Amino acid sequence: MIEDTLFLSGSYESQRIALLDKKNFDLYGEVRKHFIYSCLLSKKVIQPIGHFYQSKIIRKITEEYIELFLPVDLNGGQPIAQYAINMFKENFKEDAEEKAKTFLGEKEFQCYHDDEYRKKLTEKTTEFIPYRRFGKQLDTLANTTLKECNKNGSLYKRIYNKLYDHKKVQTALEPLIKAVQLKEFAILPEYIQYLDENNTLKEYMTLTRIILMDAYDESCSQLYNTAYVNNPIKKYYPIFFEQDYKYEVNYLDTNIFDIFLSLIPEIKSAVLKMNSSELIKLRESIYFIYFKNFYITFVGKLKDKLLNCNIKKCFLDEFTVQKDQYHKNVREVIEDHPSVLYAALSESIEKQRIISTSEYLDYTKFPMMGIVSGVMEQIMGKYEKFLYEYYKMKRNNDIIQSYQNNEKYDINGRKNIMHEFKDVKIGIITALPKECAAVKKMLENVKEYHFESNGAGNRFYVGKVKSANGGMHQIALGMCGMGNNKASIRAITMKEKFPYIESIIMVGIAGGIPDPYDISKHVRLGDIVVSEGVVQYDFVKETSEEVICRSSAAMPSAKLLEALNVMKTKEYENIYNWKSFIDTYAIEKFKKPRCKDELHDATGKIIAHPKDRSRDRYPKIFYGNIASANNLLKSYEKRQRLKEKYNVRAVEMEASGIADATWESGVGYLVIRGICDYCDAYKNDLWQEYAAMVAACYTRDLIENLPSFVSA
Q: Has this prediction a pTM greater than 0.70?
C-alpha cells in the first residue's frame, strides 16, 4: 500500500491557476490545511524543491511547521516532510542554479535569477534532508505534454471543438510543441507566450495552462511512483475545468479527509490550530493510530461502494443528514449520561485537542474514538450503525429528500405515487411508436402509469431489466414525438415524475454518415451509433460571410460511458449479449429487411460498399458525435458537410434536446441510434423497425452492465 504523498498544491503554477477567477479566496489557508492533513495521514510528504523557491505560501508554511522538515525522533529520526531534487544533484543549491538557466527572466521567477535572493533562499534549506527522485522532470513533462498535442489528446480535442479545423488546431499548438521539443527552458506559460509570435495560442492559454498542470501532475506520478499524487486545490480551477477533477478514492486524498472532519467541526478546528510539536504528538499517538486504521478501512469501503460516484458531492449532500443524526445522538447521550460525556469532551477538546477517553473506554474495540466521540459510540452505538446503514442504502450520489424517501402519502392522505418509483434510476425516451415498442420488448413486468395532469406527456411505462451483479434495474419509458423541443420537454417531465432518475437514454433510429473510403468510419444500414457528444447544427450564428455553429451540448453520462467501456472490454472476450437479444427479438415486424443496402454518390449513382472483413451478420458499433437539429435531413451535400465539419457518425432530431434538458435537471444522458437511412434523396422507411430493435437490444445490454443495488 502506498503510504507517501506527493503534495502538488504547493506548486506556484497550480496556485496561479486556482486564483484565475477567484476573489477573496484564502489560498494560503487552503494549502496549509491540506498540508497538515497530508502530514497526519502520510508516512512522508514530498514536494519538489521548486515549490519552496517559487511559492511564498509554501515558504510561509515551511517556516510555521519547520519541525516537520527536520529529523523527528518519534518518526525514526526521519523528517515527516521533505523537498525533492534530481538524483544527479548534490544539494538544493545545485538544483536552484540549474533552474536559473532554464527559467525565463520573468519577475515571478526572480527567486532563480536574482543571485542574492536565490542564495538567501538556499541558505534556508541547509538543514533540510533532500529527497532524491529518479529521472528528469523536464523529459517526463515533455513526453506527457506531447501526448496532449496529438489528435487523441485532451488539449487538441478541446481546441478542435472550438475551431473544427485540424490545420488551425495544429497551427495554434505550434508554440507549445516547439517549447516542448526545444527543451531550452522550463515549459511554463511565459515561455510558450514568448514563442507564440503570431498569438495563435493566446485565446487558449488558460486551457493550455490547465493541461500543462495536468501533464505536470502526470509526470510527477511517473517520477514519484511510490507516492500518492495529491493536488487538492485543483477543485478551485476555473469552473469549466472542474469536471476534469476526478477524486481518487484513497485515504491519502485530503479532500475526502477534509469532508470527513467537517462532520466533527470541533475536532477539525482543533487540528488546524496545532503547531508542529502538537501535530507530531497527535500523529504518533496510539489514539490516532487506531483512528487511522479505522479511517483506511472506512475509505476502502467507500471505494468499493461508491466507485462511480463524485465523492465530493456525495459527502457534501449527506453532511446535513449526518450532522443532524450526530447531534441527535449527542443530545440523547447527554440526557442519559451527562457526567461521562462532559468529562470526556472537556478533556478531549479543550485540554488535549483530541478525543482522550481511555479512562472510560477500550480503544482497541472502538478505533473510531481517536477522532469521533467514543462515549457516544460505546453507550449508544447509533452513529456507527447510522453510517453503515447509510452507505448500504446510498451506493450512489443521489441524496434523496426525506419527504420523498419516507412518505407514502401526501398531506391530504392520498397515496404518493412517486414513492413507488424510488428505485427507478434510469429513463428511456423514444420519439416514435415503433421505437417505443422495440424498447418495451426489452423490459420485464411492464406496467403503464398515467399521472394526473392537464395536457399530454404524462403517460409512462415502467419495467425491469436485470443487472449483471444480480440486482434489477427499474426503467421508466416515455415517448416524446419528433424534434428536439418535444424531447427536451419530455425529459424534464420524466425527471419530475420520477425524481430519483440519474440517467436518461435516448433510443431509436437515425440517419447514418457513411465513409466508403475508411471502413473504421463507414456506417451502414442496420448499424448502431452510440454518442460521445452531440452537435446541434441548427443552433448557429449567421453573418454575411459565414454560418457559425454555436452548439455546446454537455458530454454524456460518465456512469453510462463507463458501462460502455465494460462492453468494449467484453468485445475482446467475444461476449456480445446484445447479439443474442437481436436473434431473439428482431423477428416479425422487427426483422431485418431483405432489400439491399444501397449507397449512392453525389450524382445518384449506386456505389459499392468497401470490403470489411470485421463485419458479420450483426450490426457494427460506432462511437462518436451525433448531429441533431429540428430538420429532417434528405440532402447528400449537407450530410457530407456535417461529416467534414463535425466528424459526426449519425444525424437525428432529438439528441440535443435531451442533452440540454438533462444538463438542466442534473442527470446524465446517452444517445443510442440504429441506422435506417443515409440522409439523402433515397431515404425511405424500409429499415426503420429493424434499426429501432437493434438500438433497443444494445441499450438493454448496456443497462445490464450497470450495477444495481435493488434486489431482484
A: no
